[in-house]
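A reminder from the course coordinator: this example appears on the midterm review sheet, so study it carefully.

Given structure:
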């Protein structure tokens, strides 16, 4: 059985409006099932940790809850329960803005674009689109090629 490359974009939010949270849920869910591709951390230091910090959820508590293999709506409900029924709208906006506004360094951008067969002409700078391209390239190389 091949392991799975997560394809939910960091640019996707669920009903509570937190970008990247659906992707984080997918990665940790796959990891808990032993199915996450080895090149992908369940919870990395980038967007994953930014989301947990940005919504004020403890990493260990999150991982422990994910042991129950929740659906995505169950995860969002658990988060809201931890936060007294709602999230701070300003904190979510700040978090989402930081996700949308993050750009990879030049070497990372060039490596991703080169791997995807795209010329680096300076038009694709944001990490969301670059990460999507990398995921899609990795998926294609593993599953299609």
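Designed residues:
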């Amino acid at each position: 059985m091949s392991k799975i490359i997560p394809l939910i974009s960091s640019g996707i939010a669920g009903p509570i409006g937190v970008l990247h949270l659906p992707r984080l849920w997918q990665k940790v869910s796959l990891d808990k099932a032993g199915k996450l591709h080895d090149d992908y951390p369940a919870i990395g230091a980038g967007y994953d940790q930014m989301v947990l910090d940005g919504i004020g959820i403890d990493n260990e508590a999150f991982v422990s809850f994910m042991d129950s293999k929740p659906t995505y709506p169950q995860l969002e409900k658990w988060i809201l329960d931890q936060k007294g029924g709602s999230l701070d709208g300003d904190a979510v906006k700040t978090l989402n803005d930081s996700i949308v506004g993050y750009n990879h360094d030049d070497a990372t951008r060039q490596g991703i674009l080169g791997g995807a067969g795209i010329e680096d002409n300076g038009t694709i700078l944001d990490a969301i689109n670059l990460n999507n391209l990398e995921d899609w390239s990795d998926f294609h190389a593993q599953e299609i090629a």
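The longest helix spans residues 127-144. Residues 3 and 124 are 28 Å apart (CA to CA).
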